[in-house]
Amino acid sequence: MNVVKMTSKPSVALSLEHVRVEFGGLVAISDMTFHVNEGELVSLIGPNGAGKTTAFNIITGYLKPTKGAVHYRGVPLAGLKPHQVASQGLVRTFQRTSVFPTSTVFDNVMTGLHQSGTSRLWDTLLALPRERSSEEKLRHRTHEILETVGISHRANDLAGTMAYGDQRLLGVALALAANPSMLLLDEPVSGMNATETSRFMELLAQLRKLGISILLVEHDMPLVMGVSDRIVVLNYGRIIADGPPSEIQGNPEVIRAYLGEGVKKRARNS
Amino acid sequence: MSELLQHIINMLVLGATYALLGIGLTLIFGIMRVVNFAHGELYTFGAYFVYLIAMVLGLNFFLAVLFAIVAGCLMGALIELVLLRKMHGADIDTTMLIMIGAMIIMQNGEQYIWGGIAKSVHSPFPQTPISLGPASISWLNLFVFVTALALIGAAYFLINKTKLGKAMRATFQDSDTASLMGVNIQRIYMATFALGSGLAAGAGALLGPVYVIAPQMGNIASLKAFAIVILGGLGSIGGATIGGFILAFAEEIGAGYISTDYRDAMGFLIIIVVLLFRPTGLFKRVERIG
Amino acid sequence: MRRILPLLALVVAASIPLWIKDPYILNTFVTTGIFIIAAMSLNLLLGYTGQLSLGHVAFFGIGAYASALTSLGFDVTLFGKFHVVHEPWPVWTGLVMGVVVSGIFGYIVGKLSFRVRDAYFVIVTISFAEVVRLVALNWVELTQGPLALTNIPPVAATIPGYGTFEFYSKTSYFYLVLAVLAVSYVIISRLVHSRTGRAMIALKQNESLAVSVGIDVTSYLVVAAVMSAGIAGAAGALYAHYLRIIDPDVFLFVYTVTMVIMVVTGGKGTLAGPLVGGLIFGFIPVISRSYVGPELQWIIYGAFMILIVFVLPEGIVPAVEKWFAKNKKQDVSASPAHVQRAS
Predict the structure, then answer these.
(1) Residue A27: closest CA among chain B residues belongs to which residue?
(2) Alpha helices in C170-315, H assignment, sequence order
(3) Per-residue pLDDT tens for A220-229?
């Protein structure tokens, strides 16, 4: 894991400058500028369709912006393919289809550890000792990650047969396996009940202790207010507010943007 | 020069029938997302049907062509009902495999019934060709050209001017929304497969008398149909029409000036080259936003 | 139990020539074995990596021709100017060349497969195979075209002290094919259980997710294609030196179809699938030939494949595995561990 020393002056981990995204005639994001400091947890919120997932896609290389620049720790991410962005330490999770459904949970995480593997094709084909030791290390790491995330008891289940909440956790485990210095979490608690959500908040705290910077997209306001250092509010492809939770709560424009939605009530299943 | 003119005339005749093949497949492939390997078999079916009606039963040639098209539609509807309906939500490779199975059954069925020796259908037209300046066209080829154009026109009319066509276009764009708007997707799929198969059978019925009829002719026909669909862009009738002519052009020019042996290879080379540069086909269809 | 099964199967297979003497059946075992090797290689691409590659016979045929030409020698003039002569080399080099040349084409297809996806990729691979067939048919100077390459020398092994042993008889070839099959099985098994294999399987299941954890799509598609093509090339080479005559019909689409049927009905994405499917479809002609002619055999093939796709969409081997798993579960259904699992 990457452990970042906390200095008094925060250094910038992720920065977006004047990003603009157009699909044909539709403007998904008009002019987005914000940053995430090292070790910070920043939440990106906004009504549905505001452009949050699009922003994730831009940052992680799944989409090209029409204009603007994205940098991670000084490295420009323009033109990088998603797997190259991942090797920079920037790993995302997905809202839906967040697991490898027909593999076991254990194998899912082993797959996520791909970048950490050291064996090469020849080692595999000739069954050289390096292969075995590399696999051992990966298996050990997989157990660790499953423990951290709290789904060890599901290790041998097929990922696609798990409850939805557990699948989201597996998605986080996968991202963790990819050795991130920054995580982009796309609605990780959607579909989770109260117990699962509070368990997730504990997981978030643990991730932060490891020094991982986090950009979180969520609709669950209590969660967002509770964990974020800063909140960035998006509406119709524009940023309308950027500040600590206390500032955002009182912000009239934010309240206006959400007025039609009210406070999001999540279905609680017991 | 006269050679070129002759090539152009040949190209027009061939292109029109290729267009029929392509339109049929682009509808099936486009609307139903089925990699229809059996498409060429409907082509063969149309040819053998004409042989059956005109040669074996000795009935009128023109009636035979008409019946072949109708029979093609019915056969297509049958295939959709029996083989594809239950597999509605399946992966593209599953339906593809089913179509391969259908192809094997149909092709070997034809071989079993008719034997492997090529059959020919006698043309009801006078043998002397019509001369167009330095080039000429046979009565049969002229008939083929005109009929093919008529069928293309009919397909175009059906897709763009009728209610059924509208439903098909809606299903092509977004089948979920279409069904929410009241379109009976099952029926549309059957109609699409029937229409596509009818057009393929029509192409076979028209080209059967021009060439000879053998059980394996469907293989090349399928592949050429795919080439045309790729050239013209998925779901585009206009594209398939143009694609048909482009393929015929490439074959004629290739055979005439490069090498007759590699004539059939033209189609495949075009596919490979086009897809290398435009992985989604020559004519890009507008992607949905979202 | 699982680890013993392949070994057991190998021992049983190795004993076959001891109790089956009918040359026709031995011949069927040899050709079926060769096609099983090709089917296993297709399974790597189709079953594990999820690439709809239907041009597989091209790799098979290229392997056959490369091996045959390497051991026969050839004499061609390129572009009317360059005279290329190749003297016959020992047969084992031909087998190597079969693998290598096929592998190179596999590399090209692999690189292509990233640019062109799904159904379009299917069509490209079929077109590729057809073009190769037409080249084999028409480049008579190199391939003898439809007149076929004949008198292909049999595989020969020089054992120091004993002389040269030629794999000429059906029995000896049976063991040769079995050896290559076993080696291929081991290679593929090691591959799919490794980090590389996990990457390929991930690509098939969820490509965007795979990419997000750092898996480079193109390079793994290429690895899969190269290995797949190489093994198919080996099968083709074995075929050439067994039949000792090769003509462009080796590139016919019907062979790809055969391999696909074997993989799909046996169970794509499983190690045993191509073996089971191969044995079934290799021997249907043997069983049915006394009753029906070739066309009806093929109709049975086609109907059987459709049936399997409808009834056992994942293939025979996964269905059998599931059946065993269900029966095992029934024995322990009362245990508390099971109650906890339900969710």
Answers:
(1) B289
(2) 170-192, 195-205, 207-212, 217-243, 253-266, 273-288, 294-311
(3) 888 888 889 9
Model confidence, pTM: 0.84
Please state the separation of Cα A168 from the chain's center in Å.
Answer: 11
Dist. CA B261–CA C133, nearest whole Å: 12
Instruction: Considering only the beta carbons, identify the residue of C191, C195, C340 that sits closest to A114.
Output: C195
**pLDDT at residue A206 is higher than 70:** yes
Pick the closest to residue B76 from B30, B28, B147 (CA basis). Answer: B28
C130 and B CB contact within 8 Å: yes
> Does the pLDDT of residue C342 top 50, yes or no?
no
- Asked if C336 has any chain A CB less than 8 Å from its own CB, the reply is no
A23 contacts on B by Cβ (under 8 Å): 289
The CA distance from B140 to B14, in Å, is 12
- Residue B57: how many other CB atoms lie within 10 Å: 10
Residue C30 covered by a domain? yes
- In-domain check, residue C120: yes
Chain C residues with beta carbon closer than 8 angstroms to that of B271: 123-124, 127
Q: C130 and B223 in contact by Cβ < 8 A?
A: yes
Number of domains in chain C: 1
We find that the CATH architecture of domain A13-259 is 3-Layer(aba) Sandwich (3.40)
User: Is A60 touching C (CB cutoff 8 A)?
Assistant: yes
Question: Interface partners of A (3+ CB pairs, < 8 Å)?
Answer: B, C
More confident residue, C40 or C130: C40
Give the chain C residue whose CA is nearest to the CA of A106: C198
For C91, the domain range is 4-253
What digits encode the pLDDT tens for the residues C126-153?
888 888 988 888 888 888 888 888 878 8
- Closest chain B residue to C47, measured at CA: B93
ipTM, two decimals: 0.83
CB–CB of C272/C75 below 8 Å?
no
Which of residues C305 and C239 earns the better pLDDT score?
Answer: C239
3-state secondary structure A194-212: HHHHHHHHHHHHHHHHCCC
Distance from CA of C237 to the nearest CA of A (A): 21
Phi, psi for residue A262 in degrees, rounded to 5: 70, -170
pLDDT digits (tens, 9 = 90+) for B96-154: 889 989 999 999 999 889 887 888 888 888 878 888 777 788 888 888 999 999 999 99
Q: What does the mean pLDDT of chain B come to?
A: 84
Q: Largest Cα–Cα distance in chain B?
A: 60
Q: Which residues of A touch C340 (CB under 8 A)?
A: 153
